[in-house]
Q: What sequence folds into this?
């Protein structure tokens, strides 16, 4: 998936909802601030609704490092299947969630090693403490 393929970014930036585990049946737990895309990396700072009891619990777990995962929900618009691995080249972000066990095995970061045909897990190196940006490396 290519960060450069993120279409309609302004729609997400206008409503940067943060859910818990992609659950849209409950109210958002916060929003994403300082959203940036650079060099194949999308990063954002989670801002929790501390007036909400459930959101405050999640914030505390994040601040203490018990929840380090995040996951984006997206709509795929275009895929390039010419290489060894299909690459999403155009997509829209629906929302981004704090997630103890994200659907992506790399939690905060997913890189694919084409030579060895395996996912490289770098989650241990990213977003472990309060005010640390959550990062997704997408290229």
A:
């Amino acid at each position: 998936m290519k960060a450069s393929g993120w279409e309609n970014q302004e729609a997400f930036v206008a409503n940067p909802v943060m859910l818990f585990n992609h659950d849209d049946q409950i109210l958002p737990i916060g929003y994403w601030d300082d959203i940036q895309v650079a060099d194949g990396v999308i990063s954002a700072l989670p801002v929790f609704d501390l007036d909400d009891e459930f959101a405050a619990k999640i914030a505390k777990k994040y601040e203490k490092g018990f929840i380090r995962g995040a996951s984006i929900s997206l709509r795929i618009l275009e895929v390039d299947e010419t290489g060894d691995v299909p690459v999403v080249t155009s997509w829209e972000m629906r929302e981004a969630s704090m997630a103890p066990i994200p659907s992506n095995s790399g939690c905060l970061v997913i890189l694919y090693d084409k030579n060895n045909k395996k996912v490289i897990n770098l989650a241990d190196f990213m977003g472990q403490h309060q005010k640390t940006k959550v990062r997704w490396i997408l290229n």
Summary: The radius of gyration is 15 Å.
